[in-house]
Amino acid sequence: MNLKNMYNLNEARKEIMKPMKYLLIGALMLSFSAPAMAQDGTKADVDAVKNLIKSKPADFEKQMKAYYKENKKNPENLVAFGRAFYEAKDTANARLYADYALQRDKQYAPAYILKGDVAVLGEDGGAAAGLYEQAIYFDAKNPEAYRKYAQIYRKVDPKGAVAKLNDLRAQVPDYPVDALIGHICYISNEFADAIDAYDKVAKDKLEKMDMIEYATSCYFTGKYEKGLSMAEFGLSKEPRNSTLNRMAMFCNTELEKYNEALEYADRLFNKSDSANISYMDYVYYGNALNGIKQHDKAIEMFQKALDQEFDNKDKRAGVIQTLANAYKGMGDYPNAIKYYGQYLKEVSKAAASDYHSYAQLHVQHANTLEGDAKTETFKKADDIYGNMQSKYADIDDFIAFQRARIGMYMDPDSKLELAKPHYEKLVEVIEAKAEKSNTDKNRLIEGYRYLINYYLNIKDDTATAKTYAEKLRAIDPENEIAKMVLELK
């Protein structure tokens, strides 16, 4: 079962990336260069303030006042103090020390970035974007300001966010802007654009998260070979990376390279650091086992998947459907029927194709049985299609065709007339169509042949049989049955 068929892409990305939590948008590097000016205070003061914030002694305010006084002419240290408060989720003091820095230097870009980060924590994206723009205005070569502005603005206008990053390219030509563009496109679910951006960056220049996002984007867009190649490249550097092992397993499974998928499954489950195993991992593990016909082991994996946490019932229902299909694969129709029935009860909205699959499981099961058990199972399949008729009037012909076939299975000599009403319905619906597909024509041929046989051999009604033979010849001029019947006296 392809992960994309189970839930939407945004949910899928969250599930895949569980072990690789993103930093808060407001987090930033502290390695900015300070303006060339006389500086009071020392770097040791920054470390001391960090420890002070962690320990919160009784005279905290008094000690902080002393450090502020010592560093009030040093905007770099003041922002560092503010950053320490920010990391402790003390946004009031983080903003205060950013303002202290700006009192000393109104053009100090890192202070605007810190205030933007505080605005992000307050979920004020508009204010944050404005503050990051101010940072760019005062320091056009500061990559962090562009990155953070783009991360905020991409929610409103992803293309505008990318345009801002291209401004950075003009200011700092050597900066890996395309990797940032790839990231912005990725978190905006623009996976094809993310791939295009990452393709412009040499593999050995990509960071770990870049490689993860590149491989994942390839997976979501069906470029499994490309995604696998990137995952393997990343794993050559970090063989215990759980997300890259996961992507290698997923892509190999989609490529039907099941033995290779199982190797990466073992690495994910047993040889990865901080592997937060999700139900999808068990599903893909099971799919790979199914691929090499180890259905019993696959079923174990699907059962383990059902033991995991789900954030909505349709995801769980999807795993139950996969479990049913695994039982079908090993010819265990009773269990396949049992779990498919459970799937239909749990999924929020079953499709006509789901009920068709459920009915066909009964048909396939019936074909393995004898006597009354065989007939009863065929009847259950017919009942499913019968219930579908009231729900799906737009596929009347398809349902009639399936019920006609089941009638023939139960009544091969047509004496009970089990198939007759359904073939008549099939013919009626298709004949009324203004345009007929090849499938329609083939089903009409089958319906006409049944009715010809019925009226000739069961009812001894040659005239009616000839009526259907004429219709048969009209759509299949060379049909031998039609010719023979029309020659009868």
Helix content: over 70%
Counted beta strands: 0
Described by the principal axes of the CA atoms, the overall outline is elongated
Beta-strand proportion: under 5%
Arithmetic mean pLDDT: 89
Radius of gyration: 34 Å
What is the overall number of helices? 26
Helix/sheet category = mainly alpha
Low-confidence stretches: 1-7, 19-40
Order of helices and strands: HHHHHHHHHHHHHHHHHHHHHHHHHH
Give the distance, in angstroms, between the N- and C-terminal Cα atoms: 58 Å
Largest sheet: none
Task: Write a brief structural summary.
The chain contains 26 helices and no strands. With 489 residues, it is mainly α.
Structural description of this entry:
The protein is an all-alpha fold. It contains 26 helices and no strands. It has helices at residues 9-16, 43-55, 60-71, 75-87, 91-104, 109-121, 125-138, 143-153, 158-171, 177-187, 191-198, 208-220, 224-237, 242-254, 258-270, 279-291, 295-306, 313-329, 333-346, 352-366, 371-389, 396-410, 420-431, 438-458, 462-475, 480-486. The chain is elongated and about 115 Å long.
What keyword list fits this structure?
489 residues, mainly alpha, 26 helices, elongated, disordered N terminus
Could you outline the blueprint of secondary structure elements for this entry?
Layout: H1 9-16, H2 43-55, H3 60-71, H4 75-87, H5 91-104, H6 109-121, H7 125-138, H8 143-153, H9 158-171, H10 177-187, H11 191-198, H12 208-220, H13 224-237, H14 242-254, H15 258-270, H16 279-291, H17 295-306, H18 313-329, H19 333-346, H20 352-366, H21 371-389, H22 396-410, H23 420-431, H24 438-458, H25 462-475, H26 480-486
Helix pairs in contact: 2-3, 2-4, 4-5, 4-6, 5-6, 6-7, 6-8, 7-8, 8-9, 9-10, 10-11, 10-12, 11-12, 12-13, 12-14, 13-14, 14-15, 14-16, 15-16, 16-17, 17-18, 18-19, 19-20, 20-21, 21-22, 22-23, 23-24, 24-25, 25-26
